[in-house]
Amino acid sequence: MQQQDSSHARSSKTELTSLIDTVRSEGLQWLLRRLRYRTPHTSQGRSVHKICRQLIGATLWPTRHLSRKYHPDLMMNNNTLYAFYDLQVAPVTYDVSWFVASAELARRHAGLENIHFVIVPGNYDGFREERALYESAVDTETRRWRLHNIVLPILTFVPSFAGYTLLPSRQHVHQYRTRAGSHIYPELYEPHLPISHHPSELLNINPDSPFAQEAGCLRSPAQGIRYVTQWLTARLSGRKLITITLRDYSFMKARNSNIHAWIEFANRLDSTQFFPVFILDTERTLDPLPPALTAFEVFREASWNVWLRMSLYESSFLNLGINNGPLFMSALNRRTRLLIFKIVTPSVPQTTEEIISKIGFTIGGQLPFATRFQRLVWKDDTLDVLEHEFYEMATNIENSTRLEQPMP
User: Which of 51, 149, 221, 406 has its CA 20 to 30 A from that of 254?
Assistant: First the structure.
């Protein structure tokens, strides 16, 4: 009990310090604007937020009910879940993968046939207002590019995908909310008090429950697999495809890949058995290739096309990299095999142990929905760690493959 009180005290102190730091760096007005449109991270905060949404929904229910009754064009499709990705609170990153997988679980739980995604613009030039440091690195035009080239393609990765609507303005969301009725995700979504998905929805799943088997529901498009197969045909020559996804970004450099170690790792692989392919950070793809990488195959197309990226991951013997959005997207596909290193970076506020725990990860643990060939490695990407984890997993995969082969 004393330990719990101490832990709570440390958490409260950290949150207070975070608020003070935010006021200092962004200003009080920014903080007040953001608090209204902030998805709570704590269970208590999410409970209060849920009650507020319930009250708003109850207030608006008569109006919505009458609108559906007297306006046939507002009648919902009884077999469709409407999933609202609200850019007032949701990030324009690969984190949308968690939203899509959670929406798919909600659809299955409700017994509906398909999902229609609704992209709701934020009030800040179509997005949410970010910290000044983030804005300087990822401005609204960059986010607009990511919306069309990352977010929208990922929506198609569930077989139940029935389409999406990219609303021209925030005002248009109300007719879709009315049309959706109770078939909505996130739960009790209200445009007046929007909420984003939270990774804990998947990270808190009981590993032994049926939902754990269903969480890895993302799938590559068939045409993407065909293109990747075509690309590999002239290159693979019977070897096992190994992908290495690099993070090499100017924002939060401490989180970047240990590129020297990865190149040395690839150099030491048996080239008669393994075919390493590097996937560059998108922000570096148009730059000249580092000399140390010229000896390796680089699949630049995957950096720009999310469909090809997921198809490459699904076609690979094993996918490797550090904590980044693309690999966690891959982890939500049960057909992929992967090792993700460097989960924690203590010097980066967004990836400290405390923040990772708040998100829902168990420090030192595994994803509750992971297959036996999907593993988090809670160590930095040094050469010895890379080789140890790789060969251990490769052996497990090969042994499993031999066991699954029919007896002669």
Answer: 149
